[in-house]
Design goal:
Layout: H1 12-29, H2 49-63, H3 71-74, H4 78-94
Helix pairs in contact: 1-2
Length: 95
């Protein structure tokens, strides 16, 4: 596990999720995925509320459970978002 990888975002499936999320956000920002740092707030890259809603909807579609759009603002970095998704995923599996 690298220093920039949150504990709840480890494992092969979660590595795929990280790659997918970075690619999705990068596409909305129209920038190379390699240029996104996981510890920088997405708003610093110009992700606004419209794009945040779109990314939240894509997360819902990709993972198959509801995602509150405020998750994007409450967890403003890729790392924080992956941690929140991991927690939400665990809650949805327990339900």
């Amino acid at each position: 596990m690298s220093e920039s990888t949150p504990p709840s975002a480890t494992g092969s499936g979660d590595d795929d999720l990280r790659d997918w999320l970075v690619a999705s956000v990068a596409e909305h920002l129209r920038m190379p995925a390699a240029d996104l740092r996981p510890d920088v707030p997405l708003s610093d890259y110009g992700l606004d509320s419209v794009y945040a809603l779109s990314v939240a909807a894509e997360i819902e579609d990709h993972l198959g459970f509801p995602v509150d759009p405020t998750m994007m603002w409450d967890n403003p970095t890729i790392d924080a978002l992956l941690t929140a998704i991991g927690e939400e995923r665990a809650r949805s599996r327990a339900a």
